[in-house]
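Translate structure to sequence.
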C-alpha cells in the first residue's frame, strides 16, 4: 500500500512539472533560510555548554559609569582586592579563581634558534584554582601543584607541540619558554586542548605568583605607585553543590559595596553559558553574540517558514481543482478518507524532501556571500547528526503543517457533487482562510520592508549627519612613544607636514570620534568645589584646525608639552554655569594640583555613537604621540591618495625601520561604531528579499486559484461585453483590498517595533506616515505586476474555450 502511495505521488509530481517546480523552489528557499539561521544560532548557543559542573560556574562582572547621568557599561573585570573578599565573606562559594589575560603576548623557545611565536599567544596568569573550575584533562604534571610556584607555565597539548615538536607530553616538563622577550618560565604541566566552543580559548597558563616577581606586576597595573587607576582582575567562581545562586548574589552585592570605587558602581554574578552574550562597554561589532539578535534571527526564521508553508497551502489548494475528479473516482472505488489524506501527505512529504535536498547545497554559498554576518569559526557540515535531525524535523513539520489542510479539504468533497459537475463551489463563496493567509503574507512582507527602510533611514542619518568636525581623508596611527618622550614623534610630525599632498598634521591621543575614552576630574571654584568628571582629549595646537572643529569663542591652544590650558565644548561650558560661550573664556579650572585656563569654547561634536548624548568634554594641550594626517584629497584619484600615504610610510620607516606602518582612516573608525546597525540592516535586507519572493509565489498561487475557479464567470462576462480592463479590475481589486488591510496591520506593528528600536538612540529620525506609504507602495507595485500578468492571461482567453463544456 505504501509503495503505491509513493508511486502515485511521484507520478503526480512529474506530471505537474510547473506546480512541482514552483513548490520546490519556494520551500527550498524557506528551508535554506531557516537552515542558515539555525546553523548560526546553534553555533552561538554552543559556547561553554559542556563544562563539568558548568551550572555551578559563574563569572563576576562589574558595571562602570564613566560620566554622571550616563548609562552604565558592563565590564568583565573587577577590582583586584574583591576576589579575596569573596573567598572569605561570601558563603556558598567553593572556589574563587582570579586571572589576568595577557594582551599581545609573544613566546620564544630557548635553544630553538630563537624561533619566535608571534601574537596571538592566548595566555593568562592564573593560580591552581583556575583548573579546579575549568576541568582540563591532564597529560603531564599535577593539577594541584603545576601553578603553585613562580615562573611556571602550563601549556595545552597543541601549544606544547607547536613549541617543542611532536614529543611526549612528559618530555615537555621542565622546558623553558620566554614570554615578551624577558619573562623566562618553565613548563610544569600539559593539558589536553578544549575541543568545544568556548570564550576561554587560552593556551598558555602562567602561574599567578610569577606576577609579583616580574615586570608583569607593573604592566598589569598592580603597582599603585606607577598607575593612577585601580588594579583590575577577571574572576571565575564555582558555587558549592545545591547552593542557591540568588543568595550568593545577595551576599556578593553586600560585600562588593566596600570594593566599588573608581568608576565601578556594582557587580553581578553571570552564568558561564551566558558569557558569550556579553557586550562590554566599548564593543560595537557582532563578534560577540547578542541574545536579542539571535532571538530576532529565530523570529525571522519562523516567519519565513510560515510564509513557505502558506505559499504551499495556496498552491496546493489552487492545484486541487484539477484533482477533484481523480479523488472522487478513488472514493467511488473504495478509498477511505484516511487513506486519501495519507496519499496527499505523501506527495507533500516528497516535495518537502526534494526541497530539503535542494536547500542543503545552497547553505555554504549563502554563508559565503553573507560572511560578514557569520560568526568566525562556524563551519557547515551537512552530515552532522544535529543538522540531519533538524532537516528531518523541519521536513515532517512542513509536511504536516502545509499538507494537512489541503489534504483534508480535498478528501472531504462529495464524489456525487464532483462527478455531476457541481464540485466547484460558486464563484461568490468566501474563502476566508486563504484570504487570511494572504493578508498574513502581506503583513509579514510589509513589516520587513518597514523595518528595512526604518533602519536604513536611521543609519543614513547617523552616517551623513554633520558630526561637528571633519573626518574625510584623515589617516591616523600611533608611534608607540611614551607621553613623556615626544621628541621623535614631533620630528616625524614635522617631516610628514612637509610632504606634498599633506595639508596638516596633528599629534593626539585619540580622534574626535571613536570608542576610545578619556576621563579627567576638574573643579571650578566660583560655582562650587564639587568635582566634575568630563571627557578629555589630549592634543596639540594643530588638532582643532585639522579636524575643522568650529571655534565659538576664544582662541586655539598654544604649543605646549605641559598641561596649562584647555579648550572646552558647549556642554561643559553649560555645566560650569555659563550661559554664553564667550563668558567661559578665561575661566580657571583645576585638575589635581594644576590650574588650567579655559582659552576657547568649541561647538559640541559627537564623540561617540548616536546612542549616547553629547557629554561635557575638554581638549587639553600637552604632550601626546599619536599622529593624524589630513590628506589633500580634492580632485585626487585613489591611486594618487595611495601615493601620498606611501610617502608618509617612507617617512615612518626612516624613524621606525623595524615596525610595520599600520594606519586607519578616521571615517573607518566612525563606521565601526555603527557596525552592528549595518549588520542588522543587511540581515533585514536578506529577510525582506526572501519574504517578498515567497509572498509573490503565494500570490501567484492564489491568482491561479482564483482565475481557475472563475474561468466560466470570466467567459460569460466577456460574452456580455466586458472589456479586458474590466476583467483585470475584477481580479486585481480583491488583492488590493487584502493589501490595504495588511498595510493597516503592518503600519501599527511597524510603528511599535520601530519606536522601540529607536528608543536606544539619543539622536534619531522621526517615524512619519510616508515610511508606511512607501512600504505599501513598493509592495503594491510588485503585487500588481505579479497578479496582473496572470490575470491578463485569464482575461484574454477566448470565451469559447472556457464555455465549450456547456
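Result:
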Amino acid at each position: 500500500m505504501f509503495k503505491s502511495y509513493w508511486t502515485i505521488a511521484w507520478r503526480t509530481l512529474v506530471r505537474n512539472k510547473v506546480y512541482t517546480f514552483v513548490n520546490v523552489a519556494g520551500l527550498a528557499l524557506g528551508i535554506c533560510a531557516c537552515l542558515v539561521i539555525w546553523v548560526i544560532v546553534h553555533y552561538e548557543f554552543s559556547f561553554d555548554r559542556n563544562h563539568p559542573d558548568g551550572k555551578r560556574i559563574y563569572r563576576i562582572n562589574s558595571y562602570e559609569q564613566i560620566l554622571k547621568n550616563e548609562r552604565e557599561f558592563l565590564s568583565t573585570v573587577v577590582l583586584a582586592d574583591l576576589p579575596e573578599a569573596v573567598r572569605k565573606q561570601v558563603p556558598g562559594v567553593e572556589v574563587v579563581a582570579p586571572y589576568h589575560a595577557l594582551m599581545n603576548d609573544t613566546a620564544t623557545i630557548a635553544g630553538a634558534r630563537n624561533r619566535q611565536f608571534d601574537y596571538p599567544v592566548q595566555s593568562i596568569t592564573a593560580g591552581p584554582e583556575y583548573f579546579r573550575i575549568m576541568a582540563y584533562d591532564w597529560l603531564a604534571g599535577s593539577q594541584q601543584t603545576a601553578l603553585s610556584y613562580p615562573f611556571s607555565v602550563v601549556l595545552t597539548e597543541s601549544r606544547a607541540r607547536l613549541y617543542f615538536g611532536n614529543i611526549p607530553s612528559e618530555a615537555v616538563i621542565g622546558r623553558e619558554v620566554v614570554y615578551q622577550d624577558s619573562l623566562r618560565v618553565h613548563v610544569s604541566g600539559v593539558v589536553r586542548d578544549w575541543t568545544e566552543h568556548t570564550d576561554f580559548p587560552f593556551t598558555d597558563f602562567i602561574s599567578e605568583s610569577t606576577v609579583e616577581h616580574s615586570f608583569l606586576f607593573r604592566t598589569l597595573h598592580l603597582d599603585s605607585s606607577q598607575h593612577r587607576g585601580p588594579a583590575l582582575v577577571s574572576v571565575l567562581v564555582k558555587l558549592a553543590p545545591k547552593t542557591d545562586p540568588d543568595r550568593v548574589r545577595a551576599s556578593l552585592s553586600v560585600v562588593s559595596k566596600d570594593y566599588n570605587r573608581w568608576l565601578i558602581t556594582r557587580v553581578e554574578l553571570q552564568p558561564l553559558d551566558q558569557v558569550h552574550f556579553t557586550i562590554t562597554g566599548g564593543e560595537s561589532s557582532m563578534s560577540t553574540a547578542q541574545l536579542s539578535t539571535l532571538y530576532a534571527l529565530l523570529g525571522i526564521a519562523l516567519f519565513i517558514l510560515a510564509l513557505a508553508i502558506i505559499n504551499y497551502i495556496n498552491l496546493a489548494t489552487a492545484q486541487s481543482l484539477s484533482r477533484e475528479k481523480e479523488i472522487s473516482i478513488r472514493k467511488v472505488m473504495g478509498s477511505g478518507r484516511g487513506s486519501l489524506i495519507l496519499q496527499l501527505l505523501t506527495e507533500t512529504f516528497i516535495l518537502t524532501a526534494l526541497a530539503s535536498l535542494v536547500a542543503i547545497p545552497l547553505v555554504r554559498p549563502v554563508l559565503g556571500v553573507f560572511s560578514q554576518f557569520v560568526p568566525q569559526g562556524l563551519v557547515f557540515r551537512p552530515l552532522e547528526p544535529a543538522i540531519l535531525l533538524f532537516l528531518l524535523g523541519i521536513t515532517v513539520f512542513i509536511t504536516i503543517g502545509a499538507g494537512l489542510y489541503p489534504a483534508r479539504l480535498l478528501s472531504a468533497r462529495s464524489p456525487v457533487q464532483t462527478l455531476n459537475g457541481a464540485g466547484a463551489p460558486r464563484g461568490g463563496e468566501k474563502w476566508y482562510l486563504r484570504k487570511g493567509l494572504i493578508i498574513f503574507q502581506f503583513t509579514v512582507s510589509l513589516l520587513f520592508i518597514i523595518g528595512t527602510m526604518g533602519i536604513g533611514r536611521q543609519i543614513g542619518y547617523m552616517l551623513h549627519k554633520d558630526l561637528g568636525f571633519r573626518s574625510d581623508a584623515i589617516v591616523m596611527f600611533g608611534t608607540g612613544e611614551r607621553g613623556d618622550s615626544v621628541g621623535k614623534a614631533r620630528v616625524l610630525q614635522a617631516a610628514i607636514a612637509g610632504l606634498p599632498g599633506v595639508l596638516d598634521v596633528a599629534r593626539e591621543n585619540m580622534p574626535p570620534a571613536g570608542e576610545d575614552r578619556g576621563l579627567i576630574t576638574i573643579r571650578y571654584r566660583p560655582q562650587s568645589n564639587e568635582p566634575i568628571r568630563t571627557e578629555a582629549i589630549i592634543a596639540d595646537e594643530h588638532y582643532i584646525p585639522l579636524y575643522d572643529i568650529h571655534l565659538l569663542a576664544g582662541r586655539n591652544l598654544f604649543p605646549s608639552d605641559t598641561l596649562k590650558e584647555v579648550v572646552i565644548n558647549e556642554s561643559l561650558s553649560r555645566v560650569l554655569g555659563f550661559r554664553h560661550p564667550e563668558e567661559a573664556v578665561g575661566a580657571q579650572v583645576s585638575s589635581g594640583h594644576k590650574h588650567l585656563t579655559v582659552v576657547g569654547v568649541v561647538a559640541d561634536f559627537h564623540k561617540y555613537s548616536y546612542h549616547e548624548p553629547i557629554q561635557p568634554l575638554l581638549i587639553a594641550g600637552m604632550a601626546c604621540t599619536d599622529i593624524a594626517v589630513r590628506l589633500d584629497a580634492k580632485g585626487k584619484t585613489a591611486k594618487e591618495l595611495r601615493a601620498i600615504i606611501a610617502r608618509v610610510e617612507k617617512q615612518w620607516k626612516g624613524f621606525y625601520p623595524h615596525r610595520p606602518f599600520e594606519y586607519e582612516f578616521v571615517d573607518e573608525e566612525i563606521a565601526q561604531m555603527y557596525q552592528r546597525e549595518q549588520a542588522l540592516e543587511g540581515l533585514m535586507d536578506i529577510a525582506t528579499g526572501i519574504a517578498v519572493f515567497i509572498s509573490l509565489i503565494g500570490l501567484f498561487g492564489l491568482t491561479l486559484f482564483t482565475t481557475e475557479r472563475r474561468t466560466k464567470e470570466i467567459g460569460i462576462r466577456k460574452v456580455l461585453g466586458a472589456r479586458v480592463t474590466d476583467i483585470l479590475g475584477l481580479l486585481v481589486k480583491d488583492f488590493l483590498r487584502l493589501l490595504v488591510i495588511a498595510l493597516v496591520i503592518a503600519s501599527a506593528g511597524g510603528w511599535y517595533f520601530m519606536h522601540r528600536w529607536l528608543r536606544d538612540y539619543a539622536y534619531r529620525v522621526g517615524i512619519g506616515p510616508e515610511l508606511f506609504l512607501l512600504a505599501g507602495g513598493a509592495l503594491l507595485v510588485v503585487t500588481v505586476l505579479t497578479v496582473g500578468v496572470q490575470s491578463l492571461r485569464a482575461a484574454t482567453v477566448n470565451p469559447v474555450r472556457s464555455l465549450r463544456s456547456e
